[in-house]
Fold this protein.
Amino acid sequence: MRRQEIGAGRNRKKLRVAISDYDGTISLGGIGGDVAPAVVEAIHAWRASGNAFGIATGRDLSMIVYETERWGIPFDFLICCNGAAIYDRELRLRQSIDVPDEIVPDFLMHPAAMRSMHVELSSSGVVDLYVRDARSWFLTLGPSYNEITFDDALHKKNLQQISLAYLDVADATACTKALTHDFGDDVAPQQNGRSVDVTKSGVSKATGIRDALRIFDLSADGLLAIGDGTNDIPMIECYGGFTVKGATDAVKRAAKKIYPDVAAMLRDSAG
């Protein structure tokens, strides 16, 4: 039997929406970090009170579902690939925004992209991965992926996101600047530490939230948004959002309040 849409059977007049980043926010300690039981319990309680909970992440669908199933994290919708792909709670793709197909070969062959340890290509919930350096952090994660050749990568189409990874933050910063300079009219490279996620220009977690609210007929009134990385700043600024103690200084300056974790934000706003 098909599940009800978000808000069906709930008091829609009181329904509120909370949206959280995953890595460094729901899970603390960076990529692959643990999720505290108190955070999962708080999300359950938030939804049990008739509210909606979504995750806005740079991860692809397969990568975030691996974590939600691993930790038992409930959700009503997922905003993946930094806003380029939106899924409902049954994991049906409701919207996708692709990187222009024609720029993919030139982008991947750019000297700054060639410095990346891997090329992760996300398309409608499937991850294709070309590994250039065995030190790639992706190889330490659990989600499944299709290993491809670099030539395969050059011919991929219908991509919501291209993700790159560098050995250090300085290299990631320099390469982000170079890629933005040469391809900024078509794509938006977003750096988060040593990683760089690339979506179509104009796409961000803020636009993903805007579109998710429209798709699921939800209100922005009283919306809670929380994140810790540079790619979370657009949604934090747009929705008067929050951050956690481990966030970067730039994120802390953008946030309205700093919480110990997601559970504290949900408890503080439950009343």
